[in-house]
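Ticket #4471: structure export looks truncated?
Reporter: QA, pipeline team
Priority: medium

Steps to reproduce: submit the single chain below to the structure queue and open the exported record.
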Amino acid sequence: MDKCVGTPKPPPSLPELPEWQLRTLIRSLQVPEPGPKPGRPRTYTHTHLLRIHVYRAFMGWSVERMLRELRRDPSLCRALGLPGVPSRATVSERSKHLPWQALWQRQGGEKTKRRVLALDATALPAQATDPEACWGRDSKGQWVYGYKLHLLLDLDTGEILALSVTPANRHDGPVGWALVRGIASWEGEKPSLLLGDSAYDAEGLFQAAEEKGLLLLSGHNRRRGKPRGRRRGENLRRLQRGAYRRLYRRRWEVETVFGLLKGSLGLAACLRRVRGLKAVSRQVAAGGTALLPKKIRILSKVASLIRAALVATLLECLSTPRIAGSYTPNSE
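Actual output as written to the record:
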């Protein structure tokens, strides 16, 4: 008897796109340019450097390999709208001044429907010789030497609203509080939900979310004892309601974005080649920009990846006969 054995979930991956379509989408990226500088004008603008970083993030390439591919394939330069191939020093120095945050920063005063946001952090292992990395614990409680990526994500659209990279020993709560304070206010008939784990169960973070028009729904931190503040008590009572419990289960969807950044976009491999907090932050910003749905219409929703994986698993189970000689759609 053959049984339908459950297969492990495949790692999340980006949708397959033709090469010409990917190049066309990346060429449509535009960023504000700085004012003219005295002397010789710049050959490569911020937009040119951004396209280089986003394309190599999609391909999982390092900066060195991206420059080699540009020299080897002149059609790639033309497809990305580059006037030539910049030097390694130009890319390294000019990338420090790219306006990464302006790419995904939402403008205030927008009337939006109720959204579901998520706030979470993940560990980023670094080189053992990185002097700026620190020891910290990951989500499984294991010690990791490296950095920590803090992410504020819109689960309904897959849009990254804010991110920050810190040494791994920084606590999630204060960094999450800073991310919430840095975004624009959300206006709507109902406050949008902000989901977070027990690390964000703090009265100050509840107040900061409320000032931005958000309703924070976090797990209860038992180590802090019985909630004394008003907002923490209300949050604990909300978690006992069925509707809020179902919404809180969506918090795991942010792990899909972490998987895309570390796996398909090659962030984990890139961090083995760079050292220092600023260099790691630029690598993370490039990967986060590649996930922007407003700039590149590839990921309409993070949930679509989940549904695709579930459908593929279901079809695989249906195509496997449970009993020898039983009917399957492929048997006719």
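Status: closed, not a bug. The export was complete when the record was re-opened. Leaving a note from the reviewer for reference: Residues 1-6, 293-307, 321-332 have pLDDT under 50 and may be disordered.
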